[in-house]
């Protein structure tokens, strides 16, 4: 009887070790696939059109686990260039392991290719064949080489212009709240590790939501 009690005590002690508790945490799942005919049809005329600087066959669909703001595991989708797909998947694996909160992760086609509508919904998105706002220069989003994360919590700021326009409360970067991105946190570190830059480091403006391989 004594030996059984000792064995039970040892088992309970082992289960109480923090490492054992972490082992029960959800495991990240992510996949990479080519754009199928159905998705291609949906993208055409929305996020992609003739004249775009990248072919649809050079893009990849990522299905990625993420932590929602309600603390539950949810599934999101992004489209990025095939050359960066595995690297981006590694980034979101790190964000998942750190329990970083992401509000939404829907393809921009859900918003008919509208960057403004996607930002207003606080949607994390990647590929969208569009110009840099106010120019005729292709955005890195048009190549599948940029991602905007939690736009409402990490807005664009240039002078008095804030986008999304109702996100002014998040211009105050001293007030740290879930879903926000800061220098040296898991988000910037993860993107640094794959060689992507952060718009929060720009001098002429701040684009705290934005990560890309080459500039805009």
Polypeptide structure, described:
- The chain is α+β, with helices and mostly antiparallel strands and 216 residues long.
- Helices cover 25% and strands 18% of the residues.
- The protein has six helices and nine strands; from the N terminus they run H-H-E-H-E-E-H-H-E-E-E-H-E-E-E.
- The protein has helices spanning 2-16, 18-23, 37-43, 85-97, 115-120, 186-193; strands at residues 30-34, 59-67, 73-81, 146-148, 156-158, 161-163, 197-198, 206-207, 210-212.
- The strands form three sheets. A three-stranded antiparallel β-sheet has the order 1-2-3, covered by helices on one side.
- Helix 4 (85-97) runs antiparallel to helix 6.
- It is globular, with a radius of gyration of 20 Å.
- The chain starts with a helix and ends with a strand.
- The model is unreliable at 5-21 (pLDDT under 50).
Topology:
Blueprint: H1 2-16, H2 18-23, E1 30-34, H3 37-43, E2 59-67, E3 73-81, H4 85-97, H5 115-120, E4 146-148, E5 156-158, E6 161-163, H6 186-193, E7 197-198, E8 206-207, E9 210-212
Antiparallel strand pairs: 1-2, 2-3, 4-9, 5-6, 5-8, 7-9
Strand order of the largest sheet: 1-2-3
H/E series: HHEHEEHHEEEHEEE
Biggest pleated sheet: 3 strands, antiparallel
Label the structural class: alpha+beta
User: How many DSSP helices?
Assistant: 6
Distance between the termini: 70 Å
Let me know the average pLDDT. 91
Total strands: 9
Extract low-pLDDT stretches. Answer: 5-21
Beta strand %: 15-25%
Radius of gyration: 20 Å
The helical percent reads 25-40%
